[in-house]
Amino acid sequence: MYELCPETPNDTPEVEALMDLCFAPGRTALSSYRLRDGVPPVEALCLVLRDGSGVLLGAIRYWPVRVGDKPALLLGPVSVHPTTQGEGLGGLLMRESLGRARELGWARVMLVGDLPYYRRFGFSKLERVEMPPPTNPDRVLGLDLVDGAWLGVEGHVSRETGGDVAAGLAEIRRDPPESQTCVEMDGSAKR
Ligand SMILES: CC(C)(COP(=O)(O)OP(=O)(O)OC[C@H]1O[C@@H](n2cnc3c(N)ncnc32)[C@H](O)[C@@H]1OP(=O)(O)O)[C@@H](O)C(=O)NCCC(=O)NCCS
Description:
By secondary structure, this protein is an alpha+beta fold. The protein has helices at 12-22, 31-34, 89-104, 115-118, 165-168; strands at residues 2-6, 47-51, 56-67, 70-80, 108-112, 124-125, 129-130, 140-144, 155-159, 183-185.
């Protein structure tokens, strides 16, 4: 049995430790982190996955960004504890969070990562979307949460600087649906 919940401040030190374990040292020096500096994450989409004993198995986070003048979600980091990688938990975190993002009214999501992993969730290379350097353009990937949402969206990816980020994102529904809370899942949720 697994429990998937929005990350709370109590979870954060453990999530940071998991991410330090899963990524190379210096992960916060990556250019994608500059887009997160001083910007609150999208709380409803930052999820922690624990086993039935409460052991942290994985986590995923999202931040709001702008691409040109359009809002988008920046997915990442996503990490699964090395002892449970390859069991479908990464897929579970991806699918569940993307489903919640769609329910919340987000139209488009992007990330910087390996296409061979992310294409299974529908991601493809974004053309003419420029991350702050140094970023390999082949790793800049996007997914429509609403049909055609990336059509004509191009330009520099920049920090979401609005004082009230949610209020600035006209496309985004304000109140999370009731489903955006903790859910218990059994192994069949993994694919
Ligand atoms: C990437 C990660 C989140 C995937 O989680 P996971 O629980 O192992 O993933 P799943 O079990 O759902 O999927 C495993 C499949 O993904 C593949 N895969 C994992 N990482 C991959 C990568 N970087 N490129 C290509 N395929 C990858 C595995 O080979 C496996 O393939 P298979 O289904 O054909 O056997 C996890 O491996 C991880 O935390 N890695 C370290 C941190 C990281 O790189 N995060 C992503 C960058 S933001």
